[in-house]
Amino acid sequence: MVKSMYRYLALSIAIILAFGTVPFTAVAAEAISVVLDGSKLSFDVQPQTVSGRTVVPYRTLAEKVGAKVSWDQKTKKITVAKGTKTVELTLNSKTAKLNGTSVTLDVAPFVKNGVTLVPLRFIGESLGLWVSWNGSTKTVSLESKKTVTHAMGQTTLSSVPTRVVVLFNGMVDISLTLGVKPVGAVESWVQKPWYHYLRADMGGVKNLGNENQPNLEAIVALKPDLIIGSKLRHEKIYDQLSQIAPTVMTTDVFDWKTNMEIASVALNKQDVAAEFMADWNKRVATFKSKMGSKLKTKVSIIRFQPDGSARFYVSGFAGTMLNELGLSRPKAQQVEGKIVVGLTSKEQIPQLDGDVIFDITSDWAGDEASFKSQADWTSNPLWNNLKGVKNGRYYKVNDVTWNMSGGATAAKMMLDDLYFYFDL
After folding, report:
1. 3-state DSSP call for residue 143?
2. pLDDT tens for residues 312-365?
3. 87, 329, 391, 410: which has the fewest C-beta neighbours closer than 10 Å?
4. Given the DSSP bridges, would you call strands 39-40 and 101-104 parallel, antiparallel or unpaired?
5. How far is the C-alpha of 240 from the C-alpha of 303, rounded, in Å?
6. Which sign does the torsion angle of CA 30, 34, 40, 41 carry?
7. Quick one: which of 335, 337, 319 has its CA closest to 327?
């Protein structure tokens, strides 16, 4: 009995010692392939997964991408340099430096079989490579160039952009959602220079003026390596923008999903976009499930204008979201091919009706004329006859997140509002 216990203890110690020199979260399952510009790379020590991150021999990778490598035996420091980018890593330390700025790694560099392994995504992105992961084939793809297809054609980038200029409000939101702070951006329609919900992350960003007429001289001065605009707003100045820096154009300004996909490809943030969309799809599915038969509720989105008119939204940012959520729209607001429908006569007030009415009026003109118009329309006797008003389901909501911004985070905030107003 005693001898058996000693044998068990000795075996346990042997196992611990055997694995003690390798990070305990290393996974030696399926082989991981690394592909650079379509060609598979070979390594003396095979790539492996540690704490959810792929690590590879740094010297092989660096030399394959044309970087210079040096090793300081005394400090145990690895230096990888390519062009204007310099990466410093220290053996067994999670603190690295990129062009002199300290960053924290998920996995520290370590030695295995006499070869130093480093986190692949960090080293790749630090050297300006596009990095993507295919879980089904266990393949990491590295690209030294990226061709982005967009509304005005194709644009080829030679390095992951680090000085990005964005020229419409939705893309300001989207870039921040993806974790990319632009060096320059057009100002917000209201709450200038930046919408309140974005302001904390916009410190030091150059204000480039109005979305409809951005300041080209200021853009030149920023020396961007990517400009993101919209064909809807900037088609006429596309050639000028392209002479300043590689330029990518979205089709419109409110299709936030398509716009985020285009931006994520250019900015090497497809993994971030995928994570965001996975959460979004889950919340949409939950909304539909909880709503059940209430999805038949007819929802109206309206707005009062500074010129004294009113309008209802057929599609646009908010309308498109209602369609995705499966919410019904009033028959009068089902107008093919329209984003908004303007109303000029109070006799048209019944067209604003719905089981629920969301009002996105704001003082975007800066003279409170929109609110005066709102008061004028809502004081009309016909207004009180609307079903949504009679049932106490007329709500004034945030025009920034329901309409003006047009970004991914704004969409999430609007969805939060819908959860609230439908008491889910």
Report:
1. strand
2. 999 889 999 999 999 989 998 988 888 899 999 999 999 999 999 999 999 877
3. 391
4. unpaired
5. 36
6. negative
7. 319
